[in-house]
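thought: fold this chain, then report.
action: predict
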Amino acid sequence: MMSNRMFNILVPIISVILGLIAGAFLMIGFGYNPIEGYGALLNGIFGDAYVFGETLRQVTPLILTGLAVAFAFRTGLFNIGAEGQVFIGWLAAVWVGLAIDAPAFIHIPLAVIAAAVAGALWGFIPGLLKATRGVHEVIVTIMMNYIALYSTNAVIRYVLTDSRDSTDTIPDSVSLRADWITTMTTGSRLHYGILIALFAALVMWVVINRTTMGYEMRSVGFNQHASRYAGMNVKKNIILAMVISGAFAGLAGAMEGLGTFGYMSTQSGFSNLGFDGIAVALLGANTAPGVILAAFLFGGLKIGALSMPLQAGVPNELVDIIIALIIFFVAASYMIRWVILRFSKEGRK
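observation:
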């Protein structure tokens, strides 16, 4: 019998392979060469220092939103509000960056912490409603995405600026970008945030797998009644799980505000970082190492897709279809498991 750990490793790999194969058939069906298409995709990811730097830059917030969703999943919660938490964290980081004048070793940590706290507070509200009133977190977090979107737009226009659609650029003392990284990657927007994202993944792994707090939150996620009978504070753990999840998403916003863009502008719609984080978490089996690998896959697909129309004539919308197919196969993991078990049984006969 195959272990759950082996199953959790095989299913994402098989899902990606099946998604890529299905994408190849789609390209053939529409008259494109899949070898040229995937060749252009790989060239758009690893072709030179610039595109590789941009890939890592895209991966950075995806790791953090993936961690946000995965952490909630591991504790029995479904955080659909990572998108709104990203906006709130982004705004908080830029606001602190513009409002405070301090040396970099103070300014950067302060802005990053502010983003995490803002995201945590945005996660606290649905956690509190879930713990005290039994309101389902999916409904609340979806609504709070829209509240975050329009609230941040209003703050930008009427608080941080004089009816403008974009804040001022943050000072160098709070920027995560460095000249030597930009030079090394020939002008990409890669920044120190990738190190913060990897450190956050380590923090999640330690909290979930090596602390009493993580054990209690996972126990509450598995069975609230048994956890309460064992003496655990169910309400506290639900709230704490959503707070930590929101903090990860808030950090993703800081990476955009302090690293990629250096400012925040009003948004006409969602950035999709939070929603992509759901797919990253699912593909990564809700584990910290899995989220890192899944974020690299999704970030690579998004950046590499930009080369497909130019080098192979393949429309970049096809990448979105491939991603959707990968998610479909992950969601249908029970089918993959059934096939694996069936073949393993046939092999033993």
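thought: worth noting. The chain has 16 helices and no strands.
final: tokens above.
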